[in-house]
């Protein structure tokens, strides 16, 4: 009760917390989340996972910053896929049916499930080489009549 009264009267002591021993980590910034490829697969996975969702671990692919999301360690034989050159990586990644496989400097693999481009567009990593297919909207006769009525 005494402490509450001291605060209410504006007389409570103010002791600044010393920075030594503090455990708070500052907010991560996007420019500090670039992936360093000269690491074992477990470290790559932890880096990607640790920056998932904000700010997002990223690398440069085809001159564009691409952010990686949803990583997991892959303990299997190297899957079939289309090679994808990643700036700074000693070995190209593989776009497979399950996602993007990247390699650590120990030869082990990490599977990345989602990629986000600079414009904010997010895709499944397995669809990296898929061309955007524009489909035209086709209306039935009844829907065309309804559209006319609405106009």
From TrEMBL:
GO MF annotation terms: catalytic activity
Top-level taxonomic group: Eukaryota
Alphabetical list of Gene3D superfamilies matching this protein: Formyl transferase, C-terminal domain (3.10.25.10)
CDD domains tied to this protein: FDH_Hydrolase_C (cd08703)
Pfam families, alphabetized: Formyl_trans_C
Domain annotation Formyl transferase C-terminal: ranges: 29-129
Protein name: AL1L2 dehydrogenase
Organism listed in the record: Halcyon senegalensis
